[in-house]
Design a protein that fits this description.
alpha/beta, Nucleotidyltransferase, domain 5, globular
Amino acid sequence: MRNVALDLSARKISYCEVVDGRVVMRRTVSSLGSLEDLLGPGKPPARVALEACREAWAVHARLTKWSNEVVLVDTTRVRQLGIGQHGRKTDRIDAEVLALALERGAIPAAHMLSPHRQQLRFEVSVRRALIETRAQYVTTARGLVRAMGEVLPACECDTFVRHARRASLEQTTRARIEPLLVVLEQVQHQLVVLERRIEELCAQEPAIARLTTVPGIGLIVAAAFVSVIDDAHRFRSAHRVGAYLGLVPSEKSSGDKRRIGSITKQGNSYLRTLLVQAAWVILGPAGRGDPLSRWGHAVARRRTKKIAAIAVARRLAGILWAIWRDGTVYDPAWVAQTSARGLQRQAQSTEFQAAAMMRAAQKVHRRLARRRSATKGQPK
């Protein structure tokens, strides 16, 4: 089988094919369709290496349809192949290095998400953009009102437009923030529509319902976790999950000296942020009485609350992974006695699991109902 590598960028694709350690074909094109005469239907199939970048999923799907074998390269480990060595890094050189590594079997492969998990990841990403847009507009509106010497009442972002419209503001101030409120209405409506779509996708994922039985874990966090991990069985331990998400401490050790630093922050930054936010919820009043919360507060007393939140997030990732792997639900009594790894030995009754999942479903439905009621009566 031929050994080919593609280096993908926003405006061009660099093609490189090697045989016995020598480059036999190069080409630079503007689109994947321009390579159909080399990799398309009817051509000898090839093993194609490409970095796991933003375009990788679409390129993977098309090359696979053309009967090629696609190998995704882990972008965090490409330097070990020689990419960027001696300060020389171009699309042409990168494609050659990848092709040679593919031929000698030295590619550090990345995991390819299943199509359904790709769709879930896309929807969660769009929701993130809408949430960030809403937060920016709300902050801007509050700042403008304060600059005019007035104050808007404190409220949730979901109900901000309603409270802003009812607030007692000067006519000039109201006119100044009205364009922002109009856009926020549309953003809020699109959030409701999108979350309904995410809810439908999550209904096809039995694991998500189980993950929402964990305190601090709602539908979005569970969906993001599933869309990133994809397959619980590709990890051998909870520690590997934490490392994959960048929640383990960095380490620089040499000889007898061991230096432990801050977390590595590798992997999906959005999921890591969501898990840390969930950890803060667990450490707050909502998690009072839960053994995971008590454990986190014990860490906070020894270190700091910020370090405790990271520690809880790391343990939370392991617990979510174990629940998914074993098809169980969250059991506070068991967590109080054992680590996430011990969940594998847990035997839960059908009644216990059903009751836990019912409580989780009610929690999700209450949250969605609050969001939908916040947009009721707003223009679509």
